[in-house]
Description:
homodimer; alpha/beta; Rossmann fold; 2 domains; six-stranded parallel sheet; five-stranded parallel sheet; 16% strand; disordered N terminus
Amino acid sequence: MPSVQPLPSESEVLPQPYLLFLGDVTEPGYAKTAFGLRDWARERCVGEFACEAATVTTGLPFLTPVQAHAQGARTLVIGVANAGGVIPPQWIPGLVQALDAGLDIVSGMHAKLDEIPALRAAALRLGRKLIDIRRPPRGIAIASGRKRSGKRLLTVGTDCALGKKYTALALARAFAARGVDADFRATGQTGILIAGGGIPIDAVVSDFAAGAAEMLSPDAAPDHWDVIEGQGSLFHPAYAGVSLALLHGSQPDVVVVCHRPGRERVLGHADYFLPSIEETIELALRLGRRTQPAIRCGGVSLNTSHLDERDALRLFEAERERLGCAVADPLRGGAAFERLVTDCLA
Amino acid sequence: MPSVQPLPSESEVLPQPYLLFLGDVTEPGYAKTAFGLRDWARERCVGEFACEAATVTTGLPFLTPVQAHAQGARTLVIGVANAGGVIPPQWIPGLVQALDAGLDIVSGMHAKLDEIPALRAAALRLGRKLIDIRRPPRGIAIASGRKRSGKRLLTVGTDCALGKKYTALALARAFAARGVDADFRATGQTGILIAGGGIPIDAVVSDFAAGAAEMLSPDAAPDHWDVIEGQGSLFHPAYAGVSLALLHGSQPDVVVVCHRPGRERVLGHADYFLPSIEETIELALRLGRRTQPAIRCGGVSLNTSHLDERDALRLFEAERERLGCAVADPLRGGAAFERLVTDCLA
């Protein structure tokens, strides 16, 4: 069973293909929804669109909404995940332009599309749909802490926006390639758009966040793996609570620690230094042990998109020796990544 | 300025006095809202009411809603805080009875009163109010992690429902008695009913929970203290994420660790042993240091309501020697408590 499937349910209701909207983003880290869809659902993206102030690009063709619609696009997907999940006023004209051109809008922001009067009015007038995918399911229970059957892997990070989702997607795909029954479990809006399901864990009321994580990876066959997309960081001044709830509720057998070499400060919180990889491993295991005493670290995933191949391979080797565990960049694949996969499954 | 004031704003809209409703509760730990109001707002409570199956009592006179109304009661307050904040079907007849008798209903449960058809219909028919106080304010921002002026104390626990709110209320009152400008900051429904304000932190969407904690204790005068009611426990399999968000957002200068001697397992999660007091101090300081490097432990608060005075005093002395910090039961007061207050303010 392939681990990353085309959307099984939501895809049937989300009109496709997509035009990716980048807002006025100048920081690539905030455009991760757009990059995620480009990288993991490329066949469903016709191009990108943005405000004039944007400097970030996915590399897909820039199309106006009218051009995109002419090329088949049916939905504009807001490809931005900014702090707070807000839709700033300067995006509204572009979004209305998309509705005018015949596109529906999909958003994973906290802000709800239909609570913005200009969008609501335009959608009503034009008969367009405004679809918010960051609404958690109803009926989430308080976490029980009960041990569930099946195996689980959770990606944890030294920070936000540095590869936890990509790592989980790549590991789920690699597990499946080795004949292991595995599911990618999405916990954020991009993952949900890619996977076609999941729970936006950071949109769940905090008392229920660990319960949502339990719900997301239910009892399964003993040799089945859920590969769960991590959120935030246990060291993040705003999101650590989300990360801890996800860690406790997921009860992972294995964590893979994700980091971007060279990043020294928390994205959007420049007063905060990043923790080291060792600190992150140690704290994730210590806190995770509370609900999963057998938790272990399967290895480290480095986001090396800013390095050339030779420097990246050298870094993997040096970090592997220093940390004493498998170190790889899942997007580079190769022997290092195969070893990471092996160690996770060991 | 007294630290625990009569409700300044909500009190003017919450019709008073109260009849406390105990549902069908048989576990005293779940009736903490009723006990809290009895102990900290006694003058506003005319009595208690419950389903036949209830075995817990506040010791206040049992009154039917009709009797309570005749004695001046204007509102039935749901005095129960069960896991999940649900309103079970067996409570509905009693609640409708209260509406019939002329009482409004106040609830701090997650479940919303007006989403229960029988209550909604009865309230509409009778012109009664259904008031949910567990609705967080709008406009909560993502936590910034910025250091705020003024001083803060947070109570943290080895578990839920063992004295974090009482400890914070007693400390705020003791600070005020020493002429220290202090405010009790409520984070749960009972505290909010007592204090007349606050944010129900466990009802906030998880991404915003640390931001809500920042909002709850804003910049203040350098010698002002916010005494913040803790929630859950960093070791709780369901609520640790809430506790961590509150710890990070509160940026406490001082934590006071609360425990109930003799409790060995997590309330409602009997598979989980409680952490030791030492582990709790150590983890709170370690995690709290992330947003407040100067964090320290002011001492330990023990809930000794089940011990006689002599055993309690012996225990304080033994624990003080073992732990090397002030140990007291705020509800017993005395020299031990005065020392705890002194150490917190030191």
